[in-house]
Predict the 3D structure of the following.
Amino acid sequence: MAEELMDVLNEIDELDDLDELGEDTQKGKFMTFRIGEECYGIAINYVSEIISAQTITPVPEVEDYIKGLINIRGKIIPVIDVKVRFKQEPFEYMDRTCIIVIDVKSTTVGLVVEQIADVITVDEKSIIPPPSLNQNSYGRDRYVFGLVRVSDEVKLLLDPEKLIRDEDPTMPE
Amino acid sequence: MAEDFNTDSMLDMFLYESEQLLGDLQNTVLEKKDEDCFDETSINEIFRVMHTIKGSSGIMMYENITKVSHKLEDVFYYLRESHPDNVPHLELVDHVLDVADFITGELDKIKEGETPDGDETKIVADIDRFLKRLKSGIEEQGEELPPENEYVAPSQFYIAPTGTESNKYFKASIYYRGDTEMCNIRAYTAVYSLKEIAEDMEYMPDDIITNEDSGAVILEDGFHMLIKCQCTKDDILNAIGDTSGMDRVEINDCTKQEFEMGFHDHGPEHIVIELEDKKEAEKEKKKEPTPGDYVIKGKETGKGKKLAKSQPKPSHKQSYISVNVEKMDALMDMIGELVISEAVVLQNPDLKVPGLDLTNFQKAAGQLSKITTELQDVIMSMRMMPLTNTFQKMNRIVFDVSRKLGKDIELEVIGENTEVDKNIIEHISDPLMHLIRNSVDHGIEDKEDRIAAGKNPRGKITLEAKNEGGKVYIIVRDDGKGLNKEVLYNKARANGLIGNRPMSDFSDREIYQFITYAGFSTKEQVTEYSGRGVGMDVVVKNIQAIGGKLEIDSMEGAGSEMIMKIPLTLAIINGIVMQVASSTFVIETNAVKEFVRISKEMIVKEPNGEEYVMLRGECYPFIRLNEFYHLSDTVTDIEDGIVVLLEHENKYISVFIDQLIAEQEIVVKPIPSYVKRVRGISGCTQLGDGSIALILDIAGLIVGQERS
């Protein structure tokens, strides 16, 4: 017991890791949504909520994919248009347009997507790494960490950390 | 179990409490520094502080802190009990301050998540020598150390009973192997684990937290607990767990009566009596035959012993409760929200139906507004803290620096009760420290020079705080030699800070401001405290970071004056809401000089595209916000829009906007860090209808304009 206490005292960080283990039920579940022709997935433990489109306040002089700021219950968060982020043609926002609010490493960001699909459960073994060919196509291969086939459709699984990271992976530094 | 053991809160508590105690300690010491010796109250006070810190650092297993505080406790114990005369007072003050510094340093390390690894041996040795000298000074024979005052009067330990029926009572004893260290900590862990399942419990010895020596007692006699719970023996056994060093655990049933009787007084536990005896015996053993018998009072019983958060000792008669700042911020946010939704309700378009009778609604609305306004005032006042603590720290700095430099300086403090937002207090401590050091080091002359100049040989620094027009003024004034404009000018020129402009180009204040430029130091000699040329520019940056400014005034030969002007609060400002295209912007009301409609002739356009506006013969830089931020669908005809004239630190800029919307109180929120910093925008806020407006940063606009 005393050793445990010492451990805890010394490695409080570890305690935080332990807390995160409680999310077993969310393991292997992905929230899927459509952008253009493609269906994308994002691990559900990043998703904090889904809200319907609301007025987005534009911020001048920022990257084109940052659409602006929205207000969720007093918290002001930035919104990214995933389609623009993937260098595709922007689309019109309408009633069906949703914003997925994700928490990545204590950064809260909203993702504008064309259409929310459903939550799928994926066996980790069935995730295949994206082909390394044609790396620069739309830059999206870099955001995609795996592909998975669910009922005749290939879904692209996104790495949200790369998605929201400031620097553009397709641009040479 | 380990996860349930909330070390964070324990650590927080330890840091918080220790810091408070050290603060108290320094105040006590500095108050008495000019007297001949400490009076009885302050000796007791210092002793108490050291004792508590020793105890709590022991629990947290910060050994070096424990050792140092223990040593100083010894000294004060000796002072308290033996009342020696002719104690070298200043030396003692130094020792106390050394210890306080050492512990503060270690606490800082702990806060940063590092291990407190400072070497305590030197301080301990110094104090040891001091104590020896002290003793030999009085007692020819060289009296031994007085016995450790470790005895804490036994008191019951209760964990609030949650009270349900069908309780069972157990008596549990843990015995540790002979070579086990820190049994008290181990026992404490066991208590913590049992707390999870027990309804109520007591343990013996009950001073395991405050008394290091209880470890020895536990080793000798075992650790005994009386437990009231609804679980079985096995559960208790599991909860206690199996830790190294544990020899055996005994759990027996006992009756309610036995439980209620507890461990001492008429309790049937002969062990307890034996234990007490043993402690007495131990004390006897340690006790050297010393002249006079002294009463050992149980100090601080109950303190630090509660598992629940214990309150720091209130230094005033009022009662305080410490609240996590995050909670305060959350409350603040929510009240901000409340104010906004109130506006949404009261200005709801549904109410604008013609012919609607709103008499009762308006009455109720009036009441609601009153309450929300009061609520806002209360939360604001909750965030306000007096500057007392910050100012007291300065006392220490003047004391230290002036002694090291061999100057005799008195610090006068005025208006220390002025209250400022907590966020701001955190930010002014460092700049203030710099200013004070500068005054001591550069400002006040050496004694000889002062006498030669016909001044009081004792220098004087005044630290003053006052509230004026929504701002706090913090003034550092010294009666030293003041600033020499000639020297400042030449120096600035030599360092290439001002180009070749003649001295007459600058006002006195502008020349004084030179000292705030980076890489500027007038002091030829670099001392330990100042003169490296970094400092003043950092001070100014820190002050600007919280929206304040620094003004410098001086009279050569008579002294100088540094005035920090700081906003009272950062969280809520009065703002003017305006619109450009579809975007809404807010400007702080204080910065707005005037609104004007202008005609085309008043605009002067330079060939490089820069524009100026002529107003009453004055010429101001002109920014079209729509072009600045590349907004489309805006008013482009000068005569249709409005020009706002803004002032920041005596610089003016005019901004062209589409239309004004309202003036209102706004709650400032930062732009999410994910969005890169946008020039000219310092934050955002939420308006009555839930939409978001961007707050214009005038300083940023001016800088951006100057650069282009």
